[in-house]
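Hi support team,

I've been running sequence recovery on a batch of backbones for a student project. Most finish fine, but this one hangs at about 90% for roughly twenty minutes before it completes. I'm not sure whether the input is malformed or the queue is just slow. I've pasted the structure tokens below so you can try to reproduce it. Let me know if you need the job ID as well.

Thanks,
M.K.
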């Protein structure tokens, strides 16, 4: 079956009835479809894709994993809405000559000051609107903090997440995302497949026995997880720059920083951590 909306539920339901199910990602089914998009053509394409030797079925999440993933996605949505709202308010106030710096800390400090300032020449309808947006932002902030604390509690009670948090630069949110992506690790043949799935490996353009590696790809990857791993590794690299090395891994990392820079070293550390994790599993 094609892994579209509701696929996890129907795969679990079919398995409970004794069926063997092969969920295929839509992007792997599409090249097999001929003619226009109809139910009949889609069914033929799914059947053809299921016989292809290089097709990789998707891993089906358990009910618990899907629940944690859903909470995480709603948390990310609240975070995105907060950013969108603050950017719009900041841009509109700029048109009135009121400048707020880009940091969230400055936004939280300046909005109450702007609302209380009676000499900033803001029209009264605009002032009421900004007040409404500030109240909405505060509610979003409270809801975001509540979901964030809930996720931290859930990861703190999960044995797999506790093990993942022992990796350098991996915190509660990153460990939860790693758990959802990796599962037991049985659907990966080697550690490089894990790194490629997350998006930590360079793009290849190889032909005629010549291997050409480019920059790290950004299209086919788990972007939230990759971003979390990279930012965590970046924090580790930043601290290592200002202190002496203690282990062989730190000496390798510091040499890489001097040779290729902080960004490249951070991506390499994230890649190494994920590969080490797969080997252990």
């Amino acid at each position: 079956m094609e892994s579209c909306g509701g696929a996890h539920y129907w795969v679990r339901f079919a398995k409970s009835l004794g069926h063997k199910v092969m969920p295929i990602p839509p992007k792997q089914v599409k090249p097999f479809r001929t003619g226009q998009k109809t139910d009949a053509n889609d069914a033929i394409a799914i059947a053809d894709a299921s016989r292809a030797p290089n097709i990789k079925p998707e891993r089906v999440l358990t009910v618990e994993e899907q629940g944690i993933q859903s909470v995480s996605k709603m948390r990310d949505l609240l975070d995105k809405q907060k950013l969108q709202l603050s950017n719009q308010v900041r841009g509109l106030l700029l048109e009135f000559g009121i400048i707020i710096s880009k940091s969230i800390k400055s936004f939280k400090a300046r909005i109450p000051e702007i609302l209380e300032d009676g000499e900033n020449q803001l029209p009264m309808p605009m002032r009421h609107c900004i007040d409404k947006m500030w109240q909405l932002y505060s509610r979003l902030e409270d809801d975001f903090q509540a979901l964030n604390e809930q996720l931290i509690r859930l990861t703190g009670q999960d044995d797999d997440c506790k093990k993942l948090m022992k990796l350098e630069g991996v915190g509660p949110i990153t460990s939860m995302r790693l758990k959802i992506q990796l599962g037991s690790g049985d659907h990966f043949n080697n550690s490089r497949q894990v790194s490629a799935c997350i998006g930590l490996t360079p793009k290849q353009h190889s032909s005629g026995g010549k291997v050409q590696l480019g920059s790290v790809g950004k299209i086919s990857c788990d972007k939230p997880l990759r971003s979390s791993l990279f930012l965590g590794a970046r924090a580790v690299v930043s601290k290592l720059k200002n202190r002496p090395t203690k282990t062989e891994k730190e000496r390798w990392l510091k040499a890489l920083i001097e040779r290729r820079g902080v960004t490249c070293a951070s991506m390499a550390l994230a890649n190494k951590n994920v590969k080490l994790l797969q080997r252990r599993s």
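--
Follow-up from support: It reproduced on our side and the slowdown came from queue contention, not your input. The longest helix spans residues 124-156. No action needed from you.
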